[in-house]
Amino acid sequence: MLISMLLGLISGLSIFFVAILIMSKTISRAADYQFKKWVSIFTTNPIMGIFVGGVVTAITHSSSGTTVMVVSLVNSGVMNLYQATAVIMGANIGSTFTAQLISFNFYNVIPHLLFIGVLFYYLNFHPAMKQLGKFMIGFCLLFVGIQIMSQSMDPLKHMSSFQNLMISIEDQSFKGILVGLITTAIIQSSSTGVAILQSLSFQGLINLAQALPILLGQNIGTCITTIMASFAVDKNGKRAAIIHLLFNISGVVLLYPFLDSFSQFVSQLTPLNPMRQIANAHTIFNVLNTLILIPFISQLVWISQKIIR
């Protein structure tokens, strides 16, 4: 049973990764030098920086990709640390788009969308239609991957060890944060980590109170990719990566004392939809964190300069 469950999980994850890759590659055809130059020009204002970071990440489905791009732009001198901080904040909000997308029930129309996508891609349409078809295929595969993951995790209902772990996470939130941090650092994708949580909630294997600490840990774990990318850049590039880490840790520290109240508030918004609860918690946390820390962009930059001299 365990082997078949793991194989199902790996299969679902693989399809999910491929879906994200297809959609990202389709969109990132525009991500050439001119695109990067456009990003740097339109991020001189913090609000615009947050907006650009959010939109780019929502389109590419990768906050890590956006923050790594920010590190490279800072390293090349195209963007300063103040601009970078705003874009990083926006990237965190944009990263919640995938979770919101998954929480909608598209499953009834997925076969039809997939058929249309395949037609657009393989028939001799205009190149733009071909790219649209490719994106639609990726979009459909995203939900196929989630469905396979959800079904593969069903046997966990009958495993006492898993149930005990979930109970201990609800009682000891720090353990959940650690689980989220480590797993996201390993799979290098917070979107995938959140998707796994949503799959577990869909099967009734985890509630919001248990998922929240893991979700917070995932927000820290996603910084590992940016930290790794910063090894190859100069001091300012490293400072941008540190700002990303500081921003996410600050959010976790600020919310941690209010986890129970936050969980109850989010649960009441959509009491009958556990997948949406996780998506909403992810979004609200990142929006609140950004609103609270916008006035402290200068302080985040200053701390990063003290850490990386």
From TrEMBL:
Membrane topology label: Multi-pass membrane protein
Molecular function terms from GO: sodium:phosphate symporter activity
Protein name: Phosphate:Na+ symporter
Record-level GO cellular component terms: plasma membrane
GO biological process: sodium-dependent phosphate transport
Membrane-crossing segments per the record: 6-27, 39-61, 106-123, 135-156, 177-200, 212-233, 240-259, 279-303
Cellular location(s): Cell membrane
Record lineage: Bacteria, Bacillati, Bacillota, Clostridia, Peptostreptococcales
InterPro entries: Na/Pi_transpt, NaPi_cotrn-rel/YqeW-like
Keywords, comma-separated and alphabetical: Cell membrane, Membrane, Transmembrane, Transmembrane helix
